[in-house]
Every structure is written in structure tokens, then in C-alpha cells.
């Protein structure tokens, strides 16, 4: 195969990236985004804080650009994300709403956003990061108002707004079998038992070099065995910077393992990497001293990890 997307397609999988629509003017960025990937996720443009910074004033430009880019390049769209405790507008987070009003606000948000893009979205992260590390539910403005009921309600609202989209719940540090992924397993099992429209689980897979969870494949498989789709949704593998050739080779091996584990699970539909090049990556901002986490270097040259992913599919 000459491109990642051809390689992934040969296995019936998608290969995605997080797109920063502000970079779509850059020719190198745009050529890779359109040519190499078969799915795109909005890195930020579909988050509540981006879409509706002030109550009732939606700013659709970035999200619309992404959906148009995907259509022009025959790509799937992975919607990210409808309900999340982070990157919320201040008016939602600090509004002090009574539960009944907050319920209306969340329902309206889901209906408006999922409704606008219905027909264009293949998968939605309806919920993102609802768990604490010990597998209990994370405290949030939603959890405080409703308890865990808000989760099932969000799936039902998303399904009503876009009956075609596959509805996902997504999290980090749920990549291996551990207390947090056990919490996810209990939740989706009970949602399925109640007939809630949940179709998939996303595993963010923000990894550290040399720390591939040994139970990664078995973990994906146990969710697949519930009849759910699973997907790798935000893959990157960070290291201490500056990178060196030995570490970049070990990183390539780890990327290869992740793709291989997805391919070993028939219900694993694909892999999304979180950004195109090391220079667009969120990692150096959030983890000082770390980076070099992506498939392309700062000059948009493919790294060993790129060739490993191409070869692994
Ligand atoms: C990150 C973006 O990459 C950054 O640009 C932004 O400043 C913060 O959010 N988990 C998620 C993603 O679900 O939405 C986050 O994206 C990374 C962690």
C-alpha cells in the first residue's frame, strides 16, 4: 500500500487523525490529512466550549469546515464529543442550574449538534471521560445534578437526533484491564442490559513509550465480546524529548503492536492517531519535556512509526 488509508482499507479498517481545522490552510498538513487518512476527528472544533461559547450563540465554522473537508476527501467523520466535563463553556459549568434546567440544556445541545450533522457522522463520542481512575464515576456538573443517569439519557438523546450514527463512550487509561476499564465494562454491560443505544467503546490510547499495557488486546476483546464495536480513538506514544533514533524505533514497534492488537479483534473498526505531526501535537503543552508522539516529525516527514503502521495493516 502507498498510503495509510489504503493499507487500513485492505484490512477493512479505518485510519483516522485528529484535525485542527485552523491548520487546513497549510499545504503540507492538508495533503497528509486528505491523502493518508480515511477518518477525521475534530481535535477541538466539536467540543461544547468551541461550538457554543455563549448560550444560544453557536459558532459552526470550524466544525462545518471539518465535515466539508471529510466529504471532499471521502473520509468518515468521528464526532467528538457531545457530553464531557472538560472544555465546557463557562455558562454551562458555572451556571448553577437546577437539574431540570440543566437537563433541558444538555438535551438541547445534543439535539442541536447531533441533529445538525446527522447523516455526516459515522461515530459520535456521546460521552467522554466519565470515570475516575478507580472505576467510580467522575465528579462533574452533570454527575452532581443527575448521578450516572445522565449517561443513558445522553445516549438516548443522541440516538433520537441521529439514528444512523454509531454511539460511543470514550476514555483514557482504560486501555488495559484495570480498575478504570472494569468500571467501563460494568457500565456498558448495564447499559446494554437496559436497551440503551450504545454501540461502541473508544480507547483513547494516549500512551507512554515502553508502557504498552500487556492486556491491551484482551481488554479490547472483552468489550468486543459484548457485541460492541471498539476503536482506538486518540493514539499517541510520547517520550522524553529530544527524541533519538533508538527511541523512535521502539516507538515504531509500539505503534505496530497497537495496530496489530486492533487487527486481532474483529470488531475493532480502526485506529485514530491524535494529530498529524509532532509539531501539531497537544503533548508538549500538557506534559512538559515530553513529545515526539506522532507519526510525522516537525517537518511533516514520516517517522519510523509511520512505516510501522503502514506495514502493520
Ligand atoms: C485535547 C486537544 O488535543 C488540545 O488541543 C486541547 O487543548 C485539549 O484537548 N482527551 C480527549 C481530547 O478526549 O479531546 C483531548 O484533546 C486530549 C485528551
Automatic annotation (TrEMBL):
Top-level EC class: hydrolase
The name this protein goes by in its record: Beta-xylanase
Entire protein: shown range: 48 to 360 of 481
Record's catalysed reaction(s): Endohydrolysis of (1->4)-beta-D-xylosidic linkages in xylans
Keywords in alphabetical order: Carbohydrate metabolism, Glycosidase, Hydrolase, Polysaccharide degradation, Signal, Xylan degradation
Active site: 234 (nucleophile)
Similarity comment: Belongs to the glycosyl hydrolase 10 (cellulase F) family.
GH10 domain mapped to chain residues: 1-312
Native organism: Streptomyces bohaiensis
Enzyme Commission (EC) number: 3.2.1.8
Amino acid at each position: 500500500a502507498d498510503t495509510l488509508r489504503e493499507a487500513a482499507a485492505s484490512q477493512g479498517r479505518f485510519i483516522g487523525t485528529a484535525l485542527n481545522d485552523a491548520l487546513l490552510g497549510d499545504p503540507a498538513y492538508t495533503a497528509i490529512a486528505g491523502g493518508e487518512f480515511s477518518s477525521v476527528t475534530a481535535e477541538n472544533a466539536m467540543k461544547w466550549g468551541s461550538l457554543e461559547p455563549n448560550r444560544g450563540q453557536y459558532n459552526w465554522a470550524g466544525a462545518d469546515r471539518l465535515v466539508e473537508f471529510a466529504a471532499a476527501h471521502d473520509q468518515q467523520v468521528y464526532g467528538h464529543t457531545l457530553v464531557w466535563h472538560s472544555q465546557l463553556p463557562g455558562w454551562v459549568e458555572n451556571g448553577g442550574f437546577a437539574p431540570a434546567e440543566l437537563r433541558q440544556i444538555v438535551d438541547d445541545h445534543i439535539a442541536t449538534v447531533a441533529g445538525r450533522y446527522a447523516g455526516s457522522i459515522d461515530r459520535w463520542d456521546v460521552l467522554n471521560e466519565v470515570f475516575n481512575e478507580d472505576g467510580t464515576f467522575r465528579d462533574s456538573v452533570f454527575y452532581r445534578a443527575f448521578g450516572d443517569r445522565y449517561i443513558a439519557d445522553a445516549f438516548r438523546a443522541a440516538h433520537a437526533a441521529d439514528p444512523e450514527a454509531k454511539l460511543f463512550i470514550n476514555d483514557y487509561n482504560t486501555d488495559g484491564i484495570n480498575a478504570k476499564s472494569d468500571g467501563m465494562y460494568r457500565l456498558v454491560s448495564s447499559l446494554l442490559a437496559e436497551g440503551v443505544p450504545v454501540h461502541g467503546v473508544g480507547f483513547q490510547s494516549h500512551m507512554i513509550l515502553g508502557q504498552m499495557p500487556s492486556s491491551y488486546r484482551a481488554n479490547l476483546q472483552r468489550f468486543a465480546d459484548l457485541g460492541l464495536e471498539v476503536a482506538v480513538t486518540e493514539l499517541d506514544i510520547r517520550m522524553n524529548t529530544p527524541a533519538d533514533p533508538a527511541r523512535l524505533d521502539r516507538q515504531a514497534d509500539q505503534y505496530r503492536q497497537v495496530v496489530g492488537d486492533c487487527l486481532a479483534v474483529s470488531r475493532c473498526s480502526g485506529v485514530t492517531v491524535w494529530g498529524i505531526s509532532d509539531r501539531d501535537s497537544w503533548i508538549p503543552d500538557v506534559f512538559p519535556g515530553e513529545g515526539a508522539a506522532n507519526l510525522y516529525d516537525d517537518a511533516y516527514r514520516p517517522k519510523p512509526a509511520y512505516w510501522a503502521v503502514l506495514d502493520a495493516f
